[in-house]
Amino acid sequence: MLKIKNLHANIDGKEILNGINLTVNAGEVHAIMGPNGSGKSTLASVIAGKEEFEVTEGEILMENESIIESSPEERAHKGIFLSFQYPVEIPGVSVTNFVKTAINESRKAQGLEEMGAKEMLKLLREKSELLGIDRKFLSRSLNEGFSGGEKKRNEIFQMAMLEPKLAILDETDSGLDIDALRVVANGVNTLRTKDNAVILITHYQRLLEYIVPDFVHVLHNGKIVKSGTKELALELEEKGYDWLKPESVV
Ligand code: ADP
Ligand code: MG
Ligand code: MG
């Protein structure tokens, strides 16, 4: 599904990604871990096509097509979803209306007609039931006074509605309480199929107790310094990251 080859990226002339190689197949969940500042969020942004980063070398293929020149919108239409790409608070716009707009914008860009009201309602019902999200939540104003868990519920709901092929979830280093953690884990596990894939960026080994990844990669100074299976996450929990610093790997 996604193939990243020797990816180098800069911001303000400073090299942040330093030769990333990563292949993600349909049906797989990849966890990306690594210390603060190692480039995890940058990698997510570069895959999603955020324009503040300059790709200086390498290639990103989505289903065998290069997306390196594609805009973030084009990448979204190819089925790449990045969490946290939306404004934090939009007072007056409900969770439902926001997601309807997102779906119809995406359809418009693909030359499709707007989704009919009936079909939309059916999809809303189906996905909210699947995720155990109640009606009241769907009519809440977007992110206004949302708890950590509710923000996550909204994000996971957007993901469920948009049905991306590749979801990239960047769980930043703070603010994931146990409720939020459960929402993310239940959402990912519920939405996981053999046809989609997830890149889960996390600082927390604990999240990986709920979402069992197929692969774990450790990023250091913009490079993947180690890849393994879920056992690697346990090893990191025990030993930390220092033993994997490039200079200490002989
Ligand atoms: P992580 O998500 O692993 O904590 P980031 O990708 O956020 O790491 O950051 C990697 C490095 O890139 C850090 O040194 C950070 O300071 C730098 N960086 C990230 N975003 C920017 C930016 N917008 N401007 C300048 N430097 C940045
Ligand atoms: Mg960080
Ligand atoms: Mg980050």
From TrEMBL:
Write one Pfam family the protein is assigned to: ABC_tran
Report the sequence similarity comment from the record. Answer: Belongs to the ABC transporter superfamily. Ycf16 family.
**Keywords, in A-Z order:** ATP-binding, Nucleotide-binding
Indicate what this protein is called per its UniProt record: ABC transporter ATP-binding protein
Q: Which SMART domains match?
A: AAA (SM00382)
What's a single GO MF annotation on this record?
Answer: ATP hydrolysis activity
**SUPFAM superfamilies registered for this protein in UniProt:** P-loop containing nucleoside triphosphate hydrolases
